[in-house]
Amino acid sequence: MGTLSLAAAGAVPATSAAHQAAYPRVRPTVADYTQVTTSQTPPTQSQCASAGRRCFTPQAIQAAYNVGPLHSAGDDGRGQTIAVVDSYGSDTMAHDLHVFDRAFGIAPMCGEEGVSCASGMPTFSELHLQGSPATKAPPSTSSGPGQEDKSAWALEVALDVETAHAMAPGANILLVTTPTAETLGVQGFPQMMAAEQYVVAHHLATVISQSFASAEGAFGSAQSLEKLRYAFKSAAQDGVTVLGSSGDDGSAGSAKTPVGQGGSTLSGPAVEWPASDPLVTGVGGTNLCTDPGATSGRVVDSASPPGACQNAPGQSETGWTGSGGGYSGVFAKPDYQSGTLPAGSTAIGAMRGVPDISLQASPSTGALVYLSLPPDGQSGLKCGSTPCSTGWYDIGGTSLACPQWAGLVSIAAQLNHGGLGRINPALYKLASDPATYAADFNDVTVGNNTAETSVPGYAAGTGWDPVTGLGTPNAAKLLPDLVSAVHGG
Fold this sequence. Notes:
serine protease; Sedolisin_dom; Peptidase_S8_Ser-AS
């Protein structure tokens, strides 16, 4: 995690904290968060601006990506299920989802706290295949990561569930949790992949969202990574779309190191798995430089904070510094990246390029998320030098981009009357046609992902690039075309 701060009435000033050692634990790709208020009422833009941010409501995000016409036509993901995979889960998710929906006028879900279920309502449910330990602080003598990780994952769960639901309010959401998030090959990833295999084998979802990642170089070998891919192979055969956050370290990655010794930066550029997997749609991130108050269209705002938008006048989006991207050291370039890329694209050599597509991810142009922290949770999640508390958070990271894209894919699955399966071939096919690419994607051409000065990054540019992929969606245009392209149209 990066900068942590609390900016509410009577709260401590915004404070910086060192990047939290993240390895060898599997970690959520939440780059940065700020608690803006302790109220159940969402913060105002002026409150967010005082913390150097612009905070996007669901309606403002929908406007920026042209989702409104789909919702108006009844295309909101209904009949589809998004599986959100996270470690630990959150004890308060059913309550927090209800607060979020009431605050923004989003249709409630059966399974929310205090909601009476009715025929045709989407459902929120949880699947704990390996047990669901309560969120408890570790013993005072503990030297393990313990509660600190569980609190971070609770924030991740709230982010994933709330933003996926806001993007596709008619879709069902299945929160799939595992009771550990530790080492890469012993526990953590193996449990997550087993849970995803269960979801696919039992036809529980048409879309899987993965807001977690680890550098390819942190795995012991390509073979150890290969052993984890079986769920993705099953998903491709069963018509399930799998998406993964590309990571929040830009072009850098961290090596696997012994517990307690922190992470060490890999010497050269790296990409993160699962997003680097050719069977997964890798989701990168941008600074969303649109008006956070605009709800009827995409309106550029180059005046409001943050500096990344002020320094790029006229740009509706720029590549986010933390957007994981580059070239795989494990997977060869797949067929879908071997065809015609949009004119001016960065060349993809012999290895898989990451990411495929993007969405807002910069913490400074983040989304509002509501989280309740139980007393034990407050001992683990830090806002500067003090414990965080219940309230509204402004959050960024490719963790934000991935579940929102999952929501969009569920809308496409509704249009398709069923799961789309692998969408990467269709995305690149659409992008190969200049007119379709211009209509369906927002090409992000400014920015770079040099997050660590010791590791060279890449520049965003015209067409595909290793910061934002093909760009971000013009949803009302892209999603119907995506369905057609999946079927060879």
